[in-house]
């Protein structure tokens, strides 16, 4: 393992699921909360509440289905 690597290769699926879920939930809850309730002084707390509910769900779904979706995408797109 190189000095620059903080985690082992076997942790990659969990790290990828974590990063993907944080990115997607951050963007989606912000957009949906803004569209549904507007951008006012209460937006940050409404967005935070939505994030806290949505993130564990998204993380779990990505952990369970991420590899299956990647395999399906590979089959649909064919091999180069």
Features:
mainly alpha
Question: What does it look like?
Answer:
The structure is a single chain. The protein is mainly α. Helix content is 76%, strand content 0%. The chain is built from two helices and no strands. It has helices at 12-37, 43-77. The longest helix has 35 residues, at 43-77.
Tell me the radius of gyration.
17 Å
Helical fraction: over 70%
Helix segment tally: 2
- Note the main sheet: none
Number of strands: 0
Low-confidence stretches: none
Give me the strand/helix succession.
HH
Strand content: under 5%
What shape does the CA trace take? Answer: extended
Q: Structural class per helix/strand content?
A: mainly alpha
Mean pLDDT: 93
Distance separating the two termini: 31 Å
Summarize the structure.
By secondary structure, the chain is mostly helical. The chain is built from 2 helices and no strands.
Topology, element by element:
Blueprint: H1 12-37, H2 43-77
């Amino acid at each position: 393992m190189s000095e620059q690597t903080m985690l082992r290769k076997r942790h990659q699926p969990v790290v990828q699921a974590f990063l993907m879920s944080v990115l997607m939930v951050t963007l989606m809850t912000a957009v949906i909360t803004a569209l549904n309730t507007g951008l006012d002084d209460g937006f940050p707390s409404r967005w935070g509440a939505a994030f806290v509910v949505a993130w564990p769900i998204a993380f779990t779904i990505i952990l369970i289905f991420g590899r299956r979706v990647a395999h399906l995408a590979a089959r649909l797109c064919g091999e180069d």
